[in-house]
Amino acid sequence: MKIGTVNLGERPVMLAPMEDVTDPSFRLICREMGARMVYTEFVSAEALVRDIPSTVRKLIINDAERPVAIQIYGRDVEAMVGAAKIVESVNPDVIDINFGCPVKKVAGKGAGAGMLRNVPLMLEITRKVVEAVSVPVTAKTRLGWDANSKIICQLGLQLQDCGIKALTVHGRTRSQMYTGEADWTLIGELKANPDMEIPVIGNGDITTAQGAVDAFDRYGVDGVMVGRGAIGAPWVFRDIAAAVEGREGIATPSSERFSILRRQIRESIARTDEYRGILHIRRHLAASPLFKGLPDFRQTRIRMLRAETEQELHEIFDEIAEKYFQ
Predict the structure, then answer these.
(1) Which domain holds residue 274?
(2) What is the pTM (predicted TM-score) of this model?
């Protein structure tokens, strides 16, 4: 599968863009684990053109994580074009446009998935961004705004006509947010349309190696994107890579999983400071399957998610490892 000149190989699995999740450290770990391409947290076009420091910092990428895509969002044509040019200056492999974020503070203001209610503006923004930069431009969106407006099969062709090099579709409507099960049926339909010539990447509920294999086999997608299934479990890419390549997978031992989480803690703190670094990493710890199903774990979990120092977290990890994983 190629996005412009970026060759991702056969059946690539990618790390989805996630706010407060896909920081540089996590992206690099996921690449090391087998993700073929990674995406930054999404970047506000308005904030970027206003040179807001916290937004500008999201553009920091390093060669070790390539290929990497920087994702931008907004509802103003001029701001989106300006932001795309700024992003191009830091030399990402791909610029992705976010037409899929469902959260109220984004979609409610007409950006992200809010664009699904203003398709003409969505298409204008896409055309203008494609024309403004030489980097390959892609887009990510949803099936539609709600159950009565699942427009993706038509919309995908319209976005293709705007010049994007690949399209990622999350198998839910905006109204669904992240509830219920992702519906890949229309993703498969779009991919099967002979007029759809660019790669179609499927997204939604891919949390296991078998789930990724099924997505490729049943729906014919060119690529698969993993989002929430990677939070607290970047080793999922190692499992998926083995499965989609037809290799026998080797389960990541618990000791290595602890090491990966410890590395995330250490690098999160190094990127900011101990207080903010630990706040950031709590989302990964809360979601990690490493701690799912452990008996009588509630109080330990509470302590882990309330820990305020790196040393305290390491001590809790040591306690968990000794009690549950010997």
Answers:
(1) 254-324
(2) 0.95
